[in-house]
Write a structure and sequence with these properties.
Chains A, B: This is Acetyl-CoA hydrolase/transferase family protein. Chains A, B: It holds the Pfam family AcetylCoA_hyd_C. Chains A, B: GO terms for molecular function: hydrolase activity. Chains A, B: Keywords: Hydrolase. The structure is a homodimer of 516-residue chains. In chain A, strands 1, 2, 3, 4, 5, 6, 7 and 8 form an eight-stranded mixed beta sheet that branches. Chain A is globular, with a radius of gyration of 24 Å. Chain A is built from 19 helices and 25 strands. In chain A, α4 links the parallel β1 and β2. In chain A, α15 packs across α16 and α17 runs antiparallel to α18. At the A-B interface, β4, α15, β18, β19 and α16 of A face β4, α15, β18, β19 and α16 of B.
C-alpha cells in the first residue's frame, strides 16, 4: 500500500488536493471500492443531477456485477441526498446492488425493482434524513463516498455542485472515500454555506437564519482525515437535468399561479414588491412559473428551495430574482455552461446549503415560504397524492414537498388536470394514497384553474376543486359522486361512498381509462 | 350609557379591575351581547375545559334563541382556541347559532350539525390558527370575547386558566368584550408567558425558546382599551374535564410505551435520566402513560404539550416531572381544587403559553418532542386517521396532533386495537381518511403491542403492524389482504387491492361489524 500511495501521489492529475494526508491516499476507483463490502450501508453524495460520485459508483456497480457473476451475493444499503445522477442509480439497480434505498429516487430501473418488492425503499421527508441517520434508524453507516471539488491546505473539503447530506455522511460514516472532481470550477468555492450548528435534542439551538441570503456556516466541510481510506481523482461533468420548453398546459398553470399572486398582493397578503420566498419543485410546470415571473412586474424576488434549475439562472441574470438558496444545482448542459462561464456573478446571488437547512421546518416556517409542488392527483377534498400511481406503484418519492407544504406559508400543488392522453383525471373522488393531507393543502392548480381552499369546509371544497380544477370531461362524474355521497343519510362532514370512492382508479385498472 | 356605567362601576363585585377605563365599561352579560350581531365573526377564549367565557356565551345563545323565535336568522362564525367548555358549545349549537366553526370541537350537538352539513367546520392544525386569522382567511374578526382573571393598574390583562389564541383575538378583533372571572385565584398570576414576538413573514424572527421552562414573554395580555366595548364580571368555576381511571387496555398500551422508552434509552437514543419533552393528547390512554411514568425510574421529566390534566399535577408533586409547559389547564373538579389549593407550588413548575407557541413547529422541532397522540385507526402501512369515523363522520378534529407528529422527534399514535365491543378493528387495510401520513408516523401502539416502523419499507411495515398491533380476531383477515395484494402482477411499492381496500369499513356499514 505504501508503494502504491507514493505512486498515486506522483500521478496526481490535478492541483486540487492541497494537503498531503489526502494526496497520500490517492488510488484508482477500482482500488477504492475494495473498501466497500457486501451488506455495507453506503452513503453517497448527490442531490438531483449534481454531485454524484462519478468514478467510484460505476466501479462499485462493476465490482458487484463481477461478484454476482462468481455466485456471491453482493448488495448494499444506499443512502443519498435525494435522487442521484440517473446513470449511477441505474447501474447499481441493474446489478441488483441495492437492498435498501433511502430517501428518494427517480430512475426507471430502480423504480421497477422497488415496485416489484425486490428493493426496499423508505420514502421519508428530506429534512428528516440527517436526524434519522444520526439516530441510527438505518444502522451503522459503514462508508461514505463524497464528491468534492478540492481539499484545502488545512484539510477541509470544498463542496462540488450539490451539498445534500454530505456534511452528515462525513460526520457519521466509519470510513470515507473522497472523489476530487477537477471539472468543478475552482471559482465555485465560496458559494456554499455549511452549517455545523445542528444537533440532536436536547442540544438544539435556534438556527439564526432570517433571510434567504443569510450565511450562518462555513464554505467547507470538515473531515477527520483518519477516516478517509481513499481519494479518487476525477474530471467529469455533472450529468445534465433534462428540460423541455413549457407547453401550453404548463403555461396555463403558471398563468393561474401568477394571477393568484397578484390577487394576494391586492389583498395585502403578500408584499407587493418581492412577494415571499418561493419554493418550487423540479419540472416543466415549475419552469413555466419561473418564466412567467420573469415577464411579470416583480423584481428582487427570493427563492428558498432545494434545486436551482436553468430558469432560475435567467431570473437571476435579469434581476427578477435577487437571491436563491438551494442545496443543488440541477442544470441542463446549457445551464451548466452558463453557470460555469459566469460563476463570479452567480456566486453573489446563490448559496448552497445542506438539505437539513434548505428544508428545515424551523427555517421554512420563519421565512414564510410559498411552496409550489407538483402532484400526481388530488381528491375533491384537497388530499394530495404525490407518489403512488393508482395507490400502489411508486413514482419517485415525497422528497421535500412535505417539508415545504407542511411548514410553509402558502401551500400550493400543481398538475395538469389529466394524464395519459386524458385517460387519467388528476382530480378524483378519493386519492388512494395521501402524501399531503387536506389540513396541509391550501391551493390546487391545474390548467383549468385555481382552487383556493383556505377557510373552506370539505363540502365547500369539493365544489371549488371540481369546478376550478377538474377537466371538463370528468366534472359531471365528479359532481355526480358528490351528489350521491351527500344524499345518503348521515353523510358526514366529508361525504364519501366507500364502495365508489376508488372507482375512478379501479376503472383505469380494468379498462385503461378513468372515463365512464 | 353614562348613567349605566356609573351604576355598574358602583356595582363592581370584585376587586379585580384596577383600571378605571375598564371599570367604567362594566355591564351585564345581556347588555354586552348587544354588541354581537348576526353574521359576525366572534372569537372567544377557551381551550379544552378552561377559560371559556362563562356569562357572555350563554347570553349570546339566549339572544340567538329569542331572535330565532321572532323569525330572524341569527348565527355567527365561531373561532376558539380548541374545544371550549362543552355546555357553551352545546348551547350555541342547539340554537343553530354557529354557521362556521374553527378550529376544533368535541361536543355531540355541534358534531351532529357538522356531520349533517348544517354547520361549516374547518379542521386545521392548531398552530396555524393565529397566522391564518391574521391573514384574513376567516374574514374580519368583528368581536372577541375573552375571559381574564384581572386587569392591572396599567390596563394589561391577567389571563385565566387557558391562553389558547387569546393574544391573537385581542390583537385582531375590532371590538372586545372582557369577562373578569374572580373565581380564578389571584395567585395564578405569573403562571403565564405571553410571547409578543410572532409576526407575519417577512418579519419573523427566531423564537428563542430552547428549554421547556424558558420564559420569553410577559405575564399579561396587552389590549387597546378603546376596543373594549364591555366588561362583564363573573365568579364561576371552569367546567371540569371528565376523567375515568385507566382500564386494563389503557394500562397495557402505556406499558408498551414505557418499555419502548427503556429500549430507546438502552440504544442511546433517549437521554437516560429525563428522556425528551413529552407531549400527549387528552384521554385515558395518555393518563395511563403518565401514571406509568410516575411509577418508573425517571425523575425530572419535562412536558411540552397543549393541556395539563390531573395526572400531570401528581407527577409534578412527586418530582417525576420537573416542568410542564402547556396552553391550558384541563382538570377535573378534584384537579382544579388541587391546583387552586397549591397554586404557589404549581406556579413554579408550570407555564401556560399561547397555542401559537405551545404547538409551534420551530419549537417542537428544536426541543425534540416525543409526540404521543390518540388515533381512531391506522392502516397496515402506517397512515393514521384521527378524525373521521368510517371516513365521513368527524369525531373532533386534528387539533394539535399534526403539529407535534410532523415536527416532533418521535411520533407515536396510540389506540385500543378494537372499538365498539370488538366490531371495529383499529388496524385496517387502508384508512378512508388520512390525518397523518406514513411519512409522519414512526410508532403505533395498541394494547396488543408496539410497532416500530422507523426505517421500514411499506411491505415490511404491514407485517409489523399486523403482528404487533392488530387484535388477534382481525390478524388473519389482514394477512390475507396483504397476501392477495402482494400476489397480483405489478403489486407495487405499497400493495393494495383497490376493490377491497375499504372493505373492512364497508362491511361495518353494511353489517355493523368489520368481522367477516
Amino acid at each position: 500500500m505504501n508503494v502504491h500511495h507514493l505512486l498515486s501521489d506522483v500521478a496526481s492529475e490535478s492541483n486540487r488536493i492541497h494537503h498531503s494526508a489526502f494526496r497520500n491516499k490517492i488510488v484508482s476507483a477500482e482500488e477504492a471500492v475494495q473498501h466497500i463490502h457486501a451488506g455495507d450501508t453506503v452513503a453517497i453524495s448527490g442531490f438531483a443531477s449534481a454531485g454524484t460520485p462519478k468514478a467510484v459508483t460505476p466501479a462499485l456497480a462493476d465490482r458487484i456485477r463481477r461478484s454476482r457473476a462468481s455466485g456471491a451475493d453482493f448488495a448494499v444499503n444506499l443512502l443519498t441526498g435525494a435522487s442521484v445522477a440517473s446513470d449511477t442509480e441505474r447501474m447499481l439497480a441493474e446489478v441488483d446492488g441495492i437492498s435498501l434505498r433511502m430517501p428518494y429516487q427517480a430512475e426507471p430501473t430502480a423504480r421497477r425493482s422497488i415496485n416489484a418488492g425486490s428493493m426496499d425503499y423508505v420514502d421519508i421527508h428530506l429534512s428528516h434524513v440527517a436526524q434519522q441517520v444520526w439516530e441510527g434508524y438505518y444502522g451503522h453507516v459503514d462508508i461514505a463516498v463524497v464528491e468534492v471539488s478540492g481539499i484545502t491546505e488545512t484539510g477541509e473539503l470544498i463542496p462540488s455542485a450539490s451539498i445534500g447530506n454530505n456534511k452528515t455522511w462525513l460526520d457519521v460514516a466509519e470510513k470515507i472515500i473522497l472523489e476530487v472532481n477537477s471539472w468543478v470550477p475552482t471559482a465555485m468555492a465560496g458559494i456554499h454555506d455549511v452549517y455545523y450548528g445542528t444537533a440532536l435534542p436536547p442540544h438544539r439551538k435556534p438556527i439564526m437564519l432570517t433571510a434567504v441570503e443569510d450565511r450562518i456556516g462555513q464554505t467547507t466541510f470538515r473531515v477527520d482525515p483518519d477516516k478517509v481510506v481513499a481519494v479518487v481523482e476525477t474530471n467529469a461533468r455533472d450529468s445534465a437535468s433534462g428540460l423541455t420548453p413549457p407547453d401550453a398546459v404548463s403555461q396555463a398553470i403558471a398563468s393561474h399561479v401568477l394571477d393568484f399572486f397578484e390577487h394576494e398582493v391586492s389583498r395585502g397578503r403578500l408584499p407587493a414588491d418581492s412577494l415571499l420566498p418561493l419554493q418550487s419543485g423540479i419540472g416543466n410546470v415549475a419552469n413555466a412559473v419561473l418564466q412567467g415571473l420573469d415577464a411579470g412586474p416583480h423584481k428582487g424576488l427570493t427563492c428558498y428551495s432545494e434545486v436551482i434549475q436553468d430558469g432560475m439562472l435567467h431570473l437571476i441574470k435579469h434581476g427578477t430574482v435577487r437571491f436563491a438558496s438551494a442545496t443543488s444545482l440541477a442544470l441542463s448542459e446549457a445551464g451548466i455552461d452558463e453557470l460555469v462561464s459566469n460563476i463570479d456573478f452567480y456566486r453573489e446571488h446563490i448559496v448552497l446549503r445542506p438539505q437539513e437547512i434548505s428544508n428545515h421546518p424551523e427555517v421554512v416556517r420563519r421565512l414564510g415560504i410559498i411552496a409550489m409542488n407538483g402532484m400526481l392527483e388530488a381528491d375533491i377534498y384537497g388530499n394530495v397524492n404525490s407518489t403512488h400511481v393508482m395507490g400502489t406503484k411508486i413514482m419517485n418519492g415525497i422528497g421535500g414537498s412535505g417539508d415545504f407544504a407542511r411548514n410553509g406559508y402558502l401551500s400550493m400543488f400543481l398538475s395538469p388536470s389529466t394524464a395519459k392522453g386524458g385517460s387519467i383525471s388528476s382530480i378524483v373522488p378519493m386519492v388512494p394514497h395521501v402524501d399531503h393531507t387536506e389540513h396541509d393543502t391550501q391551493v390546487l392548480v391545474t390548467e383549468q384553474g385555481l382552487a383556493d381552499l383556505r377557510g373552506l369546509s370539505p363540502r365547500r371544497r369539493s365544489r371549488v376543486v371540481i369546478d376550478k380544477c377538474a377537466h371538463p370531461d370528468y366534472r359531471d362524474a365528479l359532481h355526480d359522486y358528490v351528489a350521491r355521497a351527500e344524499s345518503v343519510a348521515d353523510a358526514g362532514h366529508t361525504p364519501h361512498l366507500l364502495g365508489d370512492a376508488l372507482s375512478f382508479h379501479q376503472r383505469f385498472l380494468d379498462t385503461g381509462s378513468m372515463r365512464l
